[in-house]
């Protein structure tokens, strides 16, 4: 097996997003190795919660029939994927019992979607989530689905629960269109959070109208966009029928897991020389700087369900 | 929109045709400036802002049964920044338009003078591709004046000067997109500085060369010192170090220009590359 070499570039990449960054030089290799954390786990990993509490548990569910060749989503398959994922996430036998741990009949629920024209979250995902919220007893008039405009939406203004769902796509500036980034519409001037490649997006999650309200994150990996070209960044050539959803309560763990999959895909297609594009350091900083969740794969319990071909994680 | 913006938008609009091969322009163009560009391309607008972007005019063309076609024409303020934003994405085949161009899967891009032009379809068809090239040729002909590339390019040794290898940039975030150095701006890149990155070969086997031009020698010296402290730590002699993967990184300062060779295969090759950079210290 080839020996893994930690270079000073690796160290500088890791050091900026770890709390114990020290000076480079005498301890470069050791520090870099430590900064990059334990090796990734497969299946149920170390640090797994002992109870039914999701903690940093993340569920990756895939079904090869989720998306047709013409990019049309299969609503029935997607509903089952979501149900299986949520049940596994909460260690419940039935999805209905799991959803009762996400929402209560008295809640007001905002489902934050993403309406990017070329690759939106998708009505099938939105409907799958909303259907289960309604079945859990939340009245229809207390549920809204929105992207832009959430700040002026009365349901979102009064929300007691937020559910966050967006498609994964690489992003010229932030590195990844992450679930963390999906909350940028909760601030009046999104560009105020663009500094240092969107390093502090996680600060949005600490704002009073958002803080501690998110009970579920769904990173839609049905057809992730793994490469940008052109001003919009979109081209069908770089959509990948991964046919997956990544679901969790810890948004940082969800994004870190999605990022690993996307990175692996880029490595597979482009090789090491173009593996990174823009590094999505906002995900690691959400952990180390903002304490929003867990980005270290060694501390994330990853549960994989369903189709495993080309899973890349 | 102010009168000045009207004037710029009018100029941009004057370069664009109203139709091609049955694709007809929609009645209204969209115009964006440095503040409003996020309404069009969200956070990706920062890439253009990092290149001194002034104004963008976007025109959509439609045709029954065909994919929508979009032309985005950017006024980048200077030809060096038009070249810079073009160099940010060099994938695809040479398309023979303007002062440099690429075509990749439904995206035709070129630069000419102070303008960067992107013509795209979400779904590539032969007919749409023909229309893209027809429109592109028309726009390139309408922009009468060429402009110079960044002067820094003239200092590149021949083996680092291939068109497909060279990027021009101002921001460490853009640098990291092409070659990761550090999340921090350890080279003090900023809007006042320009930099040329050259990465010949698929994996940069001959090394990766960076030239950075600062406003004055004092700033350049400070930048070199900061880079040496952070990146060249552990060097047995000043300015050159063997890194953990066995390759060599070296830096020299010439007046207000800092030259760095990364990933050189040997100490001798690193010194030889830097020795080829003929810049008079001022």
Question: Would you mind describing this structure in some detail?
Answer:
Chain A contains nine helices and eight strands. Chain A has 313 residues and is α/β, with parallel strands linked by helices. In chain A, strand 2 (109-112), helix 5 and strand 3 form a beta-alpha-beta unit. The model of chain A is unreliable at 19-51 (pLDDT under 50). By secondary structure, chain B is of the alpha+beta class. In chain B, the strands form two sheets. In chain B, strands 1, 2, 3, 4, 5, 6, 7 and 8 form an eight-stranded antiparallel sheet that branches. Chain B is elongated and about 70 Å long. The model of chain B has no long low-confidence stretch (mean pLDDT 91). The chains are: A alpha/beta (313), B alpha+beta (282). The interface between A and B is large, with 48 and 42 residues.
Keywords:
heterodimer, A: 313 residues, alpha/beta, eight-stranded mixed beta sheet, globular, B: alpha+beta, elongated
Would you spell out the secondary-structure blueprint of this structure?
The complex is a heterodimer of chains A (313) and B (282).
Chain A: H1 8-15, H2 28-35, E1 57-62, H3 75-89, H4 95-100, E2 109-112, H5 123-135, E3 143-146, H6 154-157, E4 161-171, E5 175-177, H7 195-198, E6 214-225, E7 244-248, H8 251-270, H9 281-288, E8 301-306
Parallel strand pairs in A: 1-8, 2-3, 2-4, 4-6
Antiparallel strand pairs in A: 1-7, 4-5, 6-7
Chain B: H1 3-14, E1 19-20, E2 23-25, E3 30-33, H2 37-41, H3 45-49, E4 55-62, E5 69-75, H4 79-87, E6 100-104, E7 107-112, E8 115-121, H5 126-142, E9 166-169, H6 172-178, E10 194-198, E11 208-213, H7 217-231, E12 240-242, E13 248-254, E14 257-264, H8 267-275
Antiparallel strand pairs in B: 1-2, 2-4, 3-4, 4-5, 5-8, 6-7, 7-8, 9-10, 10-11, 11-14, 12-13, 13-14
Please compute the radius of gyration of chain A using only Cα atoms: 19 Å
Q: What is the terminal separation of chain B in angstroms?
A: 44 Å
Note poorly predicted spans of chain A: 19-51
pLDDT < 50 runs, ≥5 residues of chain B: none
Overall SS class of chain B: alpha+beta
Strand content of chain B: 25-35%
Shape of chain A: globular
């Amino acid at each position: 097996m080839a020996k893994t070499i930690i270079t000073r570039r690796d160290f500088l990449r890791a050091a900026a997003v770890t709390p114990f960054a020290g000076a480079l030089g005498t301890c470069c290799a050791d520090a870099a190795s430590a900064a990059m954390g334990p090796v990734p786990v497969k299946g149920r990993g170390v640090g797994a919660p002992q109870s039914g509490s999701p903690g940093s548990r993340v569920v990756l569910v895939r079904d090869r029939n989720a998306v047709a060749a013409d990019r049309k989503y299969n609503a029935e398959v997607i509903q089952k994927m979501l149900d299986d994922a949520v049940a596994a996430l909460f260690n419940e036998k039935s999805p209905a019992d799991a959803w009762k741990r996400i929402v209560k009949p008295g809640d007001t629920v905002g489902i934050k979607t993403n309406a990017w024209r070329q690759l939106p979250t998708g009505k099938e995902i939105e409907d799958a989530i909303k259907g289960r919220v309604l079945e859990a007893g939340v009245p229809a008039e207390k549920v809204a689905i929105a992207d832009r405009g959430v700040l002026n939406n009365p349901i979102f203004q009064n929300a007691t629960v937020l559910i966050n769902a967006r498609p994964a796509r690489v992003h010229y500036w932030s590195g990844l269109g992450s679930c963390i980034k999906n909350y940028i519409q909760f601030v009046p001037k999104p560009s105020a959070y663009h500094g240092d490649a969107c390093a502090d997006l996680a600060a949005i999650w600490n704002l009073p109208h958002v803080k501690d309200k998110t009970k579920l994150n769904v990173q839609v990996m049905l057809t992730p966009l793994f490469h940008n070209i052109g001003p919009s960044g979109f081209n069908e050539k770089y959509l990948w029928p991964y046919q997956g959803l990544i679901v969790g309560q810890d948004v940082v763990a969800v994004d870190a897991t999605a990022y690993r999959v996307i990175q692996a895909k880029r490595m597979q297609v482009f090789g090491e020389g173009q593996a990174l594009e823009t590094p999505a350091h906002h995900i690691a900083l959400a952990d180390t700087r903002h304490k929003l969740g867990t980005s270290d794969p060694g501390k994330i319990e990853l549960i994989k369900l369903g189709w495993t071909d080309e899973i890349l994680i | 929109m102010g009168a000045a913006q009207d004037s710029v938008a009018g100029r941009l609009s004057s370069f664009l045709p109203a139709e091609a091969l049955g694709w007809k322009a929609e009645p209204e163009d969209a115009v964006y400036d440095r503040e409003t560009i996020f309404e069009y391309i969200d956070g990706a607008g920062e890439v253009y802002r990092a290149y001194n972007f002034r104004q963008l005019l976007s025109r959509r063309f439609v045709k029954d049964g065909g994919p929508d076609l979009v032309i985005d024409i950017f006024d980048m303020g200077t030809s060096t920044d038009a070249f810079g934003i073009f160099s940010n994405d060099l994938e695809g085949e040479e398309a023979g338009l303007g002062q440099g161009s690429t075509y990749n899967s439904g995206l035709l891009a070129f630069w000419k003078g102070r303008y960067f032009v992107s013509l795209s379809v979400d779904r590539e068809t032969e007919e749409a591709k023909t229309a893209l090239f027809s429109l592109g040729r028309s726009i390139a002909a309408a922009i009468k004046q060429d402009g110079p590339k960044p002067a820094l390019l003239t200092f590149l040794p021949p083996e680092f000067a291939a068109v497909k290898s060279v990027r021009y940039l101002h921001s460490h975030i853009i640098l990291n997109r092409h070659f990761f150095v550090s999340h921090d701006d350890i080279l003090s890149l900023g809007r006042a500085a320009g930099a040329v990155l050259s990465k010949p070969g698929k994996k940069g086997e001959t090394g990766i060369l960076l030239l950075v031009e600062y406003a004055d020698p004092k700033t350049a010296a400070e930048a070199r010192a900061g880079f040496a402290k952070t990146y060249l730590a552990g060097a047995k002699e000043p300015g050159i170090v063997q890194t953990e993967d066995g390759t060599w990184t070296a830096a020299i300062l010439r007046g207000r220009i800092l030259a760095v060779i990364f990933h050189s295969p040997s100490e001798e090759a690193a010194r030889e590359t830097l020795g080829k950079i003929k810049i008079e210290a001022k």
